[in-house]
Amino acid sequence: MLLIVGLGNPGTKYAGNRHNIGFMAADKIALRHGFGPFTKKFQGELAEGRLGGDKALILKPQTYMNESGRAVGEAMRFYKLETADLIVLYDELDLAPGKVRVKTGGGAGGHNGIRSIDAHCGKDYRRVRIGIGHPGGKELVTRHVLGDFAKADAEWLEPLLDAIADAMPMLAEGKDSDFMNRVALAMQGKAPAPKNKAASAKPTRPKVGEGAAPNKKPAPKGKSHIHQARQNGPAIAPPTTGPMAEMLKKLLGKG
């Protein structure tokens, strides 16, 4: 028997958070495969059904994310399950939105829900990491994961959850690579493009024949009275002696 756990925080306040994508995936799997209704059990909400011909349980811990291991550990002890029988679905900052990876064991990667399950249950269980993307700065992480998905995200989020639910029997049969390939194929053309910072365009000088000619200064709009005096001479006879005469000689290049 498998125990499939979706991670998230309880209550309507957190229902649309990126951090709750594990809950969303659990709900979609239960609906797609005809699981019974969720009932309160093991400090969480539990639904029973079948995947790939075998009995399976879907658990959504209601202990808040940081204490997820309490609910998971209680369910595993009750049903006498091993870590090999456990599959956990959760949000992954280090994967682009729309991407899914499966791994067995490993570290928590800063995820408090996974850290709690590791502490209560051990580490050798399968982890379905569902990409939500990274906001770019460490100081933005909390706001990002506890922020709601945007309306535009539905264009990739709904197909992703559908693909995970459709391919879940493969995961139940231990075909992890087939599961990932199935999801990836379903998401072709639907996953959002990575967000890259636009490179700042540097101004370029016009080429010859494409605007101003090189190495030429633009012609002045008008000439000053000094330029006119140099070119055409004065309109009236200048004084020949005194300070004014000396200044005119210098300006006009005479003397």
Write the layout of secondary structure elements.
Elements: E1 2-6, H1 21-32, E2 39-41, E3 44-51, E4 54-61, H2 68-79, E5 86-92, E6 100-104, H3 112-121, E7 126-131, H4 141-145, H5 154-172, H6 176-186, H7 225-232, H8 243-251
Parallel strand pairs: 1-4, 1-5, 5-7
Antiparallel strand pairs: 2-3, 3-4, 6-7
Helix pairs in contact: 1-5, 2-3, 5-6
Please bin the fraction of helical residues. Answer: 25-40%
Largest pleated sheet: 7 strands, mixed
- β-sheet strand percentage: 15-25%
Tally of alpha and pi helices: 8
Compute the number of strand runs: 7
- Indicate the overall shape: elongated
In brief:
By secondary structure, the chain is α/β, with parallel strands linked by helices.
Fold and architecture overview:
By secondary structure, the chain is an alpha/beta fold. Helices cover 34% and strands 16% of the residues. It is built from 8 helices and 7 strands, in the order E-H-E-E-E-H-E-E-H-E-H-H-H-H-H. It has helices at 21-32, 68-79, 112-121, 141-145, 154-172, 176-186, 225-232, 243-251, and strands at 2-6, 39-41, 44-51, 54-61, 86-92, 100-104, 126-131. The protein has a 7-stranded mixed sheet, with helices on both faces. The longest helix is centred in the middle third of the chain and has 19 residues, at 154-172. The chain starts with a strand and ends with a helix. The relative contact order is 0.13. The model is unreliable at 197-230 (pLDDT under 50).
